[in-house]
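Support request from a user on the community tier.

User writes: "When I paste my structure tokens into the form, the page sometimes reloads and wipes my input. The last time it worked, I copied everything first. Here is what I submitted, just in case something in the input itself triggers the reload:"
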């Protein structure tokens, strides 16, 4: 694993239950603010093997991936979604 990948994995693991982070936020905290898409790839390829809380990472608009699994996992930890399917980032962002 590259140092950036190690940092991304550590940051995703550190997102507390009931909170979320954006792909861009993770990239910035890992030292490469322009690498949000790389965070997406890392999350996609390593979530299962590294047992990452993938459902706690959302896009910059507060939107989640398609499908209900991510929304249900977040709602189980107290995150409330608006009628448009988005969450209010300032309310839940770490």
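"...and here is what came back when it finally went through:"
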């Amino acid at each position: 694993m590259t140092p950036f990948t190690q940092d991304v994995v550590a940051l995703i693991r550190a997102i507390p239950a009931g909170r979320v982070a954006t792909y861009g936020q993770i990239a910035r905290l890992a030292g490469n603010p322009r690498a949000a898409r790389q965070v997406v790839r890392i999350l996609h390829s390593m979530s299962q093997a590294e047992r990452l809380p993938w459902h706690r990472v959302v896009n910059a608009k507060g939107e989640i991936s398609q499908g209900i699994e991510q929304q249900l996992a977040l709602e189980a930890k107290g995150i409330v979604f608006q009628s448009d399917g988005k969450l209010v980032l300032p309310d839940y962002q770490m």
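Agent notes: The reload is a front-end session timeout and is unrelated to the input. The chain has one domain: 3-82. Residues 3-82 form a domain with the Arc Repressor Mutant, subunit A fold (CATH 1.10.10.10). Escalated to web team.
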